Predict the structure.
Amino acid sequence: MDLSLVWAIIILFGIMMYIIMDGFDLGIGILYLFFKEKEDRDLMMNTVAPVWDGNETWLVLGGAGLLAAFPLAYSVILSALSLPLLFMLMALIFRGVAFEFRFRAHDAERHFWDKAFLCGSIAATFFQGVTLGAYLQGIKMVNQAYAGGPLDWISPFSLFTGLGLLVTYALLGSTWLIFKTTSELQTTCYKLSQGISMALLVIIAVISLWTPWMDSRIAERWFSLPNLLWLSPVPLLVIFFFYKLQRALKAKAETSPFLYTLGLVLLGYAGLGISIWPNIIPPEMSIDAAAAPPQSQQFALIGAVIIIPIILIYTAWGYYVFRGKVNKDEAYH
């Protein structure tokens, strides 16, 4: 068994689950920009209140898996991206506090926690995107150690990916609200989703051209034959899902817009993975070069095999218990 490959799949799966589940959660916070009424904001929060605090479990799984299976990559990535990761974690903490305190605040104080939730959601998402962009553009290494400066993560590309993730999570949030709400809030989200989805398509196109322009190896992977033929389903499926999303929004469908948005997000995630595979630290360090000893990977894998099904079960159960529409006269808190 190729333990490095198994662990790479586990880590990629954990990050993917985090992007999906915390994505619409953070997206709801970003959408506070468009909803000013207390009743709307209460309803938006109540769509995720029973499940939101379990979403970060997948982020912890991805980070812990990286430390256990690829300690060299963990060391280099944290050295290179410590500041944006720190800012992201601070924003997540601030946002989590605002989430709970908002429901208990007096009317005169609630506006402060609304702003805290909004700013925390935007900051956490933005710095996640900046971290992704800085990672994709490559990390300088010498003798298996980070050799760059403390601000190398700041670049036009990383700032653009930060903005891109804001748009991505906003679309996840708006289509989630279509799925979970009714009446005026749902109607507003239909309109928002159409505009946000157009912006997302532009962002996907720009990043799809920018990444091969940055690295000739990525360009060769995507545009040389026969790779061009083998990988062509990815952009074609992006166009297909975008078309289906627009049709679903115009038809006022309730479930399919969220599913098509998930499809777009997963295709974008797959495209980025294809661009750098099998490297775990772009542009050159592979998963095998960064791997821990097989004994360490094997020992940690035992724990992963036990804990991942448990996480999946309680996550699925939580969403099942709180399934269905959320109304204004119902509240979790």
About this structure: Residues 183-214 form the longest helix (32 residues). The longest strand covers residues 279-281. The chain has one domain: 3-321.
